[in-house]
């Protein structure tokens, strides 16, 4: 990895908690000349499983680098925390501290990685503090745990009205609980938290009367990052981070239904890549909702290397070369 690229990845990790982890696509990005919106055909009926979404039949791999170790982590050295080690999210306009499940989950993941690297138990303690915050904030739907947002969120010209939910938050919390269940098997709280959280992926819905984030669109399985009273954006990075959480749980449990959901989620990404790709000389698009997401405002240079890293990771865990081929194409389109 070149020093320039390493600098970019470090910069991205340091700003994720500042708001870009929830849409905030505000910085301009190189864009190719407008082109017709690619057409993504519905999934062939022959590819649909009994739950109604397409799968590819991949055998998941365990003998590869876990996505946890090469994902872009937040910078634990600059993240604001309170005296107990809890990561804080401040609303940009007011400075008010708001509960933010993704902030707590991402800090916990980064702290666990720092603990593995250094052996310093302060990082494990801080990871547990943020994991406990997730446990304490959960709400339930038929026994499944959800990490709810109780404040409105505006992206571009739409506002998501509280309450709303996030497949990304569900997946990242699942990553934290699954890793802690492995690190501290003597503490049953973490396995219970993982078991309860994974159940959320099997629940569907719409609107904001009950928690949901899983949606089937044109026969493809998506984990919606902004699930509520607006149409699903079908966001690539949040969807894949949810897949990574399911992968962590699958490593812990070997659950075959979870493996099927990983397969289905990854299959959806391959189908959506024509909508994600920005074209030669341009960065990729943040989301895939037809027409609405094909706007220059949804092209952001920060997410382009995240997409590339995620594609490589999906290629490793599925063994499918198509993911690396798409990653190489995005790299050739724009390198920053």
Can you tell me about this structure?
The model is unreliable at 1-21 (pLDDT under 50). It contains nine helices and eight strands. β7 (214-217) and β8 form a beta hairpin. With 336 residues, it is mainly alpha-helical. α3 packs across α4 (167-183), α4 (167-183) packs antiparallel against α5 (188-198) and α6 packs antiparallel against α7 (256-276). The protein is globular, with a radius of gyration of 19 Å. It starts with a helix and ends with a helix.
Strand composition percent: 5-15%
Taken in chain order, the helices and strands follow as HEEHHEEEEHHEEHHHH
How many angstroms does the end-to-end distance come to?
14 Å
Given helix and strand content, the structural type is: mainly alpha
- Approximate shape: globular
Number of β-strand runs? 8
Q: What are the defining features of this structure?
A:
336 residues; mainly alpha; two-stranded antiparallel sheet; two-stranded antiparallel ribbon; 9 helices
In a nutshell, what does this entry contain?
With 336 residues, the chain is mainly alpha-helical. It is built from nine helices and eight strands.
Task: Give the topology, please.
Blueprint: H1 3-15, E1 89-90, E2 97-98, H2 101-118, H3 121-137, E3 139-141, E4 144-146, E5 153-155, E6 158-160, H4 167-183, H5 188-198, E7 214-217, E8 220-223, H6 236-253, H7 256-276, H8 303-318, H9 321-333
Antiparallel strand pairs: 1-2, 3-4, 5-6, 7-8
Helix pairs in contact: 2-3, 2-4, 3-4, 4-5, 4-6, 6-7, 6-8, 8-9
């Amino acid at each position: 990895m070149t020093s320039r690229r390493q600098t970019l990845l470090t910069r991205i990790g340091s700003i994720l908690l500042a708001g870009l982890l929830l849409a905030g696509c505000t910085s301009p990005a190189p864009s190719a000349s407008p082109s017709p919106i690619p057409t993504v055909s519905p999934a062939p009926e022959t590819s649909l499983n009994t739950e109604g979404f397409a799968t590819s039949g991949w055998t998941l791999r365990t003998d590869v680098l876990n996505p946890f170790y090469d994902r872009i982590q937040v910078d634990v050295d600059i993240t604001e925390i309170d005296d107990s080690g809890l990561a804080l999210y401040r609303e940009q306009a007011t400075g008010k501290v708001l509960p933010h499940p993704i902030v707590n989950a991402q800090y916990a993941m980064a702290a666990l990685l720092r603990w593995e690297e250094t052996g310093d138990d302060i990082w494990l303690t801080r990871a547990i503090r943020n994991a406990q915050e997730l446990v304490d904030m959960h709400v339930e739907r038929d026994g499944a745990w959800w990490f709810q947002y109780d404040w409105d969120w505006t992206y571009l010209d739409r506002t998501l009205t509280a309450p709303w939910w996030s497949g990304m938050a569900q997946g990242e919390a699942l990553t934290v609980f699954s890793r802690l269940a492995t690190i501290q098997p003597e503490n049953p709280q973490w396995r219970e938290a993982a078991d309860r959280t994974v159940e959320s992926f099997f629940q569907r819905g719409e609107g904001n009367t009950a928690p949901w984030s899983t949606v089937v669109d044109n026969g493809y399985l998506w984990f919606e990052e902004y699930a509520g009273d607006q149409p699903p954006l079908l966001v690539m990075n949040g969807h894949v981070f949810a897949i990574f959480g399911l992968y962590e749980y699958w490593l812990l449990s070997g659950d075959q239904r979870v493996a099927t959901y990983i397969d289905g989620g990854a299959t959806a990404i391959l189908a959506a890549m024509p909508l994600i790709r920005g074209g030669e000389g341009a960065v990729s698009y943040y989301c895939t909702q037809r027409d609405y997401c094909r706007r220059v405002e949804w092209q952001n240079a920060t997410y382009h290397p995240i997409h590339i890293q995620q594609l490589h990771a999906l290629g490793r865990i599925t063994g499918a070369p198509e993911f690396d081929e798409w990653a190489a194409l995005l790299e050739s389109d724009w390198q920053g």
